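=== RUN LOG ===
request id: a7f3
mode: sequence -> structure
chains: 1
length: 102
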Amino acid sequence: MLSVFKSIPTHMDYKGQKLAEQIFQGIILISAVIGFVYGLIIQQFGWTVYIVLAGFAVSCLLTLPPWPMYRRNPLPWQPVAPEASGEPTQKPQESIKRKKHK
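=== RESULT ===
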C-alpha cells in the first residue's frame, strides 16, 4: 500500500516553479478583478469574497500538485564519482595547517 504513495513524483523543476507561480498569481488577480466588478454591480461584498475564494481554490488545484507540465526541465545532475582508492579523502580545509595566534 505504501509503495503506491512512494511512486508518486513530488518534485518540480525551477522553470516549473516559475510557471506555477505565474499561473497562481494570474488566476488570483483575474478572480479578484471579476469578483470586485461583480460585487460592485450587484452591491454585495459577499459575492466578491466567494469569487476570490473560488479563484484561490482553482489556483491551488492547478499549482500545488506536481503536474507533469511543471517537470519538463529537470536539472542535469553530475554522476557520482567513484573513489580511486580505499582511503577516505580529506577535505581541503583539513589539510591546511592552522596558524596559532600568540
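=== NOTES ===
Residues 82 and 89 are 12 Å apart (CA to CA).
The chain has a mean pLDDT of 86.
=== END ===
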